[in-house]
Design goal:
308 residues; mainly alpha; 2 domains; 10 helices
Length: 308
């Protein structure tokens, strides 16, 4: 399918950059090697389940996840060519329905299947929450309005961003589910993207450190301007680096953030909420620093994150 959007000089330059490989695209989707590795890990995870009914629902979830990766792989390959932008938008529309079906299956079937342990049910709940958060972000914030009528660079950027968000979301979903069934799994060996995850973790540490500094400053300087800055930084983190946290921490962050933002918006005394939020961020920061991808980077006495 060819786009009817006429290329501008800026767009032609973008096309040349893509053809020359001057702007490398992020690796996504399933290569044959990755597909074999995932199928092996999925087989090991399914073998750890005794109840046939539970095996069935988990197998269905993995099958739907692999389908998502296939769609994302097609989008990634199409991003090398500007004449497939509208095709990518159509794929994303299909993907939206498939992902919403997966969430519905998890909530209506998987979580209510007899034989599912409380631990696995909590895993399903976290997956549903995390996936729902990201599809809302992609399809209700990024890909809204008359996107097909926008310029090619804008459409390209939105598709690239959506593809990256969904790839990260489903990689984290896959690792979390596999690891819940096979605790000995090394998550860094699943997608073979150690450097990318290290960079994401360093960025997360930096942003958490910056947010903690802002909260500390606001505790001693509760001026209207400072509190407005707190709200802005809290929301920016929610819409940005929060995606690199583990799913289990998303809900906690959003709950603390909502209480604090609501308090500030209503001109209430936010002293205790600022302190509670700061303590919560310190715990998150400590957990992130212990990630395997950051092993050896932080010393035992480090208090600050290095610049990524």
């Amino acid at each position: 399918m060819s786009t009817v959007i006429a290329p501008t000089p800026e767009e032609l330059l973008l096309q040349r950059l893509l053809e020359q490989g001057a702007e490398p695209l992020p690796i996504a989707g399933l290569s044959d090697e990755l597909k074999e590795r995932l199928e092996l890990e999925i087989s090991i995870a399914l073998d750890a389940i005794e109840d046939p009914a539970v095996v069935g629902v988990v197998r269905t979830i993995f099958r739907e996840i692999l389908t998502v990766f296939d769609r994302l792989s097609l989008i990634e390959s199409n991003l090398h060519k500007l004449d497939t932008l509208l095709e990518n938008l159509s794929i994303l529309e299909v993907l939206q329905f498939e992902i919403r079906y997966l969430v519905e299956f998890i909530e209506a079937t998987a979580m209510n299947t007899e034989g599912v342990s409380d631990r696995l049910r909590d895993m399903f709940d976290g997956m549903s929450y995390g996936i729902s958060h990201d599809i809302k972000r992609v399809f209700e914030r990024e890909l809204i309005g008359e996107i097909r009528e926008q310029t090619t660079p804008v459409v390209y950027g939105k598709i690239l961003h959506a593809q990256g968000l969904l790839t990260n979301c489903f990689q984290q979903t896959t690792i979390a589910l596999l690891q819940s069934l096979n605790p000995s799994l090394d998550p860094n060996q699943v997608f073979n993207d150690f450097e990318e995850r290290q960079e994401q973790s360093l960025l997360l540490c930096n942003d958490l450190t910056s947010l903690m500094r802002t909260i500390k400053q606001a505790e001693s300087q509760r001026t209207p301007d400072m509190l407005q800055t707190v709200m802005q930084r809290v929301i920016e983190f929610r819409d940005g680096s929060m995606q690199y946290l583990m799913y289990r921490d998303w809900r906690g962050y959003e709950q603390h953030a909502l209480r604090l933002v609501s308090s500030i918006e209503n001109n209430l005394d936010s002293t205790d909420l600022l302190h509670q939020f700061g303590c919560f961020l310190e715990v998150l920061y400590g957990h992130v620093k212990m990630r395997a991808v950051l092993r050896g980077i932080f010393g035992s006495s480090d208090n600050e994150a290095p610049v990524a």
